[in-house]
Design brief:
This protein is of the alpha/beta class and 216 residues long. It has 10 helices and 6 strands, in the order E-H-E-H-E-H-E-H-E-H-E-H-H-H-H-H. It holds the Pfam family Response_reg.
Length: 216
């Protein structure tokens, strides 16, 4: 059972998300918060698996709440929800430690699937957000630096490049002719070496370091 908390300053939005998620037998909504400060308290008290976190809230916004939860070394994973498809929110949320980012107008089925994906240890970015991440790092005329991130082995850099391009563990395993479990082990080592909370932050590191250049 995936235990979830919903943080949004609009009561009707919280109720709507709670109803959508509670319709799934594997998801239990165990708490609701009207602002970021209350959400931080709920996470400390209830230790949910997932928080659906609005970006804009009073007292403490979703990004600061995420940063506070992550700094407390909580195991809770966070999906940011917003009506604003704006670059600053995307990068601030990922750097704060969010594991997913979805727009509030996403189809209802995508919400539950997002909860399952992030609860399972993966990172999630909406397609429109992924496009913006790539565009943000696009620098015309440059070539990828295959020796960037020297703390990684050649194999780890090879796998991170594929992660940054959106490949799943299964796709990476097939491409490199290795076992899926081997890919998972490499990804875990990559996250540890980069001090990245999850794949989303590792992708940012890949682009920022120059290991991957969009369209290269």
């Amino acid at each position: 059972m995936i235990r979830a908390v919903i943080a949004d300053d609009q009561a009707m939005v919280r109720a709507g998300f709670a109803a959508l998620l509670s319709a799934h037998p594997d998801i239990d909504v165990i708490g609701q918060a009207e602002d970021g400060a209350h959400c931080v308290e709920l996470v400390a008290d209830l230790a949910p698996d997932i928080v659906l976190m609005d970006v804009r809230m009073p007292l403490m916004d979703g990004i600061e709440a995420t940063r506070t939860i992550v700094a407390a070394k909580a195991a809770t994973r966070i999906i940011m929800l917003t009506t604003f498809d704006i670059d600053d929110y995307v990068f601030d949320a990922i750097r704060a430690g969010a594991s997913g980012f979805l727009l509030k107008d996403a189809p209802p089925g995508e919400l539950a699937e997002a909860v399952r994906i992030v609860a399972g240890g993966e990172a999630l970015l909406a397609p429109s957000v992924t496009k913006r991440v790539i565009e943000h790092f696009a620098t015309g005329g440059k070539t990828a630096n295959r020796t960037a991130l020297p703390e990684l082995t050649d194999r780890e850099r090879e796998i991170l490049i594929q992660v940054a391009r959106g490949a799943s563990n299964t796709e990476i395993a097939s491409s490199l002719h290795i076992a899926v479990q081997t890919v998972k082990t490499h990804v875990s080592r990559i996250l540890y070496k980069l001090d990245a909370r999850d794949r989303a932050q590792a992708v940012i590191a890949a682009y920022e370091s120059g290991l991957v250049i969009p369209n290269s």
